[in-house]
Amino acid sequence: MYTFVAEYLTELELLRTQTEFDDSLTLKIYLLQFVNYYASIFYIAFFKGKFIGYPGDYNRFFNFRQEECGFGGCLMELCIQLAIIMVGKQTLNSILEMLLPQFYKWLNVIKVSGSRLKSGWSMKGGAKRWLRDLKLVQWGSRSLFPEYLEMVLQYGFVTIFVAAFPLAPFFALINNVLEMRLDAKKLITYHRRPVSQRVRDIGIWYRILDCIGKLSVITNGFIIAFTSDFIPRLVYRIVVSPDGSLNGYMNYSLAYFDTRHLQPGSEPQMTEYNITICRYPDYREPPWSEKPYERTSMYWHILAARLAFVVVFENIVALVMIFVRWGIPDMPCELRDQIRREAYITNEIIIKQETIRARNEKYCDVASARTTFRDSNPSANFIKMEQIEQLMNATNMSGAQLDLVIHGPNNPVAPGYVRASERRDSIEPVSL
């Protein structure tokens, strides 16, 4: 259902290129699957048992009390939820990846066999190789999408909630070892040979993985600070405990409540014991104080310590990531320098070739302009052709005759040339 919804929304965008369409569709499907797989985990980690109120004044939602965590907190419940969803999802996907291609192959076998029987065509000597390949499942343009989606969702389980379920990387390793062999068998025995396509990169998946890595730092910091009891115990050992131990921590973390302040209908059942005071996990003033059931100063100290831990944790992880990227670059220095040198040499060659081409074009333009100016007169063209014929037919020609033929009679180098200033007017005067 998520795929149909994502395709419909992507079609409404009217994207220009296939790459933009694929990236948008991939992002929508992943976000829908993200909510489907991680919603319950985020609820247990950050919302369950955080806004319930206290006995006598519970916060209600649609007139129902909110769900509470166990006595040990929600961390153990979060770990169990992660284990069930992650391991169960991996097991179910592995089973479906083997059964579905086999089922589709069985349907193709029935379809091809039915077509042969209907046409009355038979194959002597057994089926040919191409006919056996025709019965395999066709590899579509988005057949790799479920594989990428499965790996990215698994990466989210391993990184986002690793503080609550430290065994997640171990189960992911076991699953991936089995997945390699199952996918190899599936591609070889159940699918036709895929047609390779040249692409630039893995598309938007890289940005999704980068966002998951940054989100995992924040979520793990909040899980350690707010979901677990690490910060309250640390504050108790540093501030309250005289010897730096956890002796008396349980009694210190429980608040007092007078049963007479319970709402009508929520009182405890009658027993042989007279219960007047009960304890519950919270940091509130006792009922006999001046401000009963108000937050104690220790609650605010612990909250400040939790926020400070999140800030320090994120900055330390960011510094470690920067150091790792600097110490282990994606590209070695030698390879980067070689690529830069090749790019420099390529640019120099291109610039040199463009310079030579520009010079040749300029020379050709000047030559064509001169030729056009000289050949604009048809008589000049006729004289030029006549001169060429004279040179080709000449056998014994002196230098003066050669200059006369080439340069013409009006050229200064031609024999017998007379300047205009030295010429006399040959017209005789007319007597009146």
TrEMBL record:
Q: Which Pfam families does the entry link to? A: Anoctamin
Entry GO MF terms: chloride channel activity
Q: Which UniProt keywords apply?
A: Membrane, Transmembrane, Transmembrane helix
Lineage, top-rank taxon, reads: Eukaryota
Location of the Anoctamin transmembrane domain: 1-342
Membrane-topology descriptor:
Multi-pass membrane protein
List membrane-spanning regions: 29-47, 68-88, 152-178, 303-328
Q: Please state where this protein is localized.
A: Membrane
Say where the protein is mainly found: membrane
One GO cellular component this record assigns the protein to is: plasma membrane
Please state which protein family the record places this protein in: Belongs to the anoctamin family.
Which named protein is this? Anoctamin
Q: Name its species.
A: Phlebotomus papatasi
